[in-house]
Design brief:
Blueprint (H helix, E strand, L loop, with lengths): L1 E5 L5 H10 L4 E6 L2 H13 L6 E5 L11 E7 L8 H9 L2 E10 L32 H6 L15
Parallel strand pairs: 1-2, 1-4, 2-3, 4-5
Length: 157
């Protein structure tokens, strides 16, 4: 399996994906911050995953990978993008047919920002808050992806 981690930061999610795909797969983590990418590379070496988990500094709007991916993943990244739907639509072109797109974002449906910012309403993309309604459902609809929800984990009492 070949995985693209969008907004990888220092590599937390990329390294987890690297454990799952192992040396028969690959993970490419991209981030805008060269410092974060350098830290992620050092962590991949320390974890013994540097042969199949790689990192690159890239701007999401102009990034063009050399291959297609089986999965595109990210954590806490869509809420920081000025146009998340546009980014997802563009990246969908790098996904193999039947591929997986999975993002974890915070759900803050009743948040307030002070001062208000034009993108402060983009705090969740598929996770659910108290209202059980996704805050960014339009982002997924605009990007041609269908959001899914997972049932809550059973209590372990």
């Amino acid at each position: 399996m070949h995985v693209l981690d969008l907004g990888c930061g220092v590599g937390d999610v990329s390294l987890l994906a690297g454990q799952l795909v192992g040396p028969s797969g690959s993970v490419l983590g991209i981030d805008r911050s060269q410092d974060a990418v350098e830290t992620a590379e050092r962590r991949a070496v320390a974890a013994g995953q540097c042969y199949w988990v790689r990192f690159a500094s890239a701007d999401f709007a102009s990034f063009v990978p050399e291959r297609k991916f089986d999965a595109i993943i990210g954590r806490l990244i869509l809420m920081y993008l000025p146009e998340p739907a546009e980014t997802l639509r563009r990246l969908a072109g790098f996904l193999r047919p039947g591929g997986i797109v999975a993002f974890q974002e915070m759900s803050m449906p009743t948040h307030e920002a002070s001062p208000q910012h034009r993108s402060s309403h983009r705090c969740s993309a598929g996770s659910f808050g108290p209202s059980r309604e996704p805050v960014l459902r339009p982002t997924w609809a605009e990007s041609c992806f269908r959001p899914i929800s997972l049932p809550a984990c059973p209590s372990r009492r």
